[in-house]
Specification:
By secondary structure, the protein is mainly alpha-helical. It is 64% helix and 10% strand. The chain has a three-stranded antiparallel sheet.
Length: 172
């Protein structure tokens, strides 16, 4: 026998008084104009451009979820637990995606000799080739963005973004 869950009341801004309605609608509009939303949208477009380019280069087995792992693993290798922590996902989920990349030949999962509990994620030769291609892709995308906003504006955006990242890291 299943029990119905109590329904939480929905808030309808139209049922509120006119002054409150105006304030709520302004807040809802600001939500669409938030910096976070813009950065998220740009990141998704950027990732889609990278994926499109690497697929065109023949790396058609790479999926969007793989690019997160590729981004989180250092060229010299990274501990599996550190990859999970960087991506803020479980070690099990990270392990599953890494396993796929191992099966595809882009990565290897190694045990550290002095501590067999530690598993390192490292790039294979094929994975390094993919990384080199992604680096070239970044150059193509950067040139496209510079054409859109100008080289100086793009450089300024990079500097401001780095400043925001450095200044905000201690807030989370």
């Amino acid at each position: 026998m299943t029990r119905a869950l109590p329904r939480s009341p929905t808030v309808n801004p139209l049922s509120q008084g006119a002054p409150r309605l105006s304030s709520q609608l302004r807040q809802l509009t600001k939500r669409r104009q938030s910096l976070g939303r813009g950065l998220f949208t740009l990141a998704r477009i950027y990732d889609a451009m990278v994926l499109q380019d690497i697929h065109a280069a023949g790396y058609t087995d790479i999926r969007p979820v793989h690019t997160n792992i590729l981004r989180a693993v250092d060229v010299g290798g990274t501990r599996l637990t550190d990859v999970a922590s960087t991506l803020n996902i479980t070690k099990q989920a990270t392990g599953q995606v890494v396993k796929e990349l191992v099966e595809l030949g882009y990565m290897s999962l190694l045990t550290v000799p002095h501590d067999t509990r530690v598993r390192m994620v490292v790039f294979t030769e094929r994975g390094m080739s993919l990384l080199l291609h992604i680096g070239e892709t970044f150059g193509h995308i950067d040139r496209h963005l510079a054409e859109l906003v100008g080289e100086k504006a793009l450089q300024s955006f990079r500097e401001q973004l780095e400043q925001m990242i450095r200044g905000s890291k201690d807030l989370v």
